[in-house]
Design goal:
The protein has six helices and no strands. The protein is an all-alpha fold. Helix 2 runs antiparallel to helix 3 and helix 3 packs across helix 5.
Length: 137
């Protein structure tokens, strides 16, 4: 059976693409990969997703993770919203970044910021079926 997702190749690409990010962020992301991923038994697909998100956030922020401020988090949320990222994607970005920053024991005051709260992607009625829409037996 053909592997249409090829997570191993995508993971290799994300690791190679870390050369595009700031050296201190690259070092932190690779350290996170080598220490956090095995401890938490993350599969290749999850590893690929996390590395990709951290790489993209690093490129968008263009500053070391150790220097992030509440304003940076607010700007990231606004930027993702303007680019029409889905609520699921925005929530994934913030969950990955928050977990990464907690793992690094960085910015405890930043982690308490209300900016971490993202909209619940399931709260919208759009696309949901109401009981009245279901066929009657």
């Amino acid at each position: 059976m053909e592997n249409i997702h090829d997570f191993e190749q995508r993971l290799r690409h994300n690791v190679e693409a870390l050369n595009e990010v700031l050296p201190e962020n690259k070092k932190a992301i690779l350290e996170y990969r080598s220490l956090y991923f095995p401890k938490n038994h993350l599969g290749v697909g999850r590893q690929e997703k996390i590395l990709g998100i951290l790489r993209q956030i690093s490129n968008r922020m263009a500053k070391p993770f150790t220097e992030l401020t509440e304003k940076d988090i607010e700007n990231l949320k606004a930027q993702l919203g303007k680019e029409n990222f889905s609520l699921h994607t925005i929530q994934s970005y913030f969950r990955v970044l928050k977990c990464f920053l907690k793992w690094q024991n960085l910015k405890n005051d930043l982690l308490a910021s209300p900016e971490w709260k993202t909209a619940n992607p399931y709260s919208k009625q759009e696309g949901q079926i109401s009981p009245d829409d279901l066929p009657k037996p």
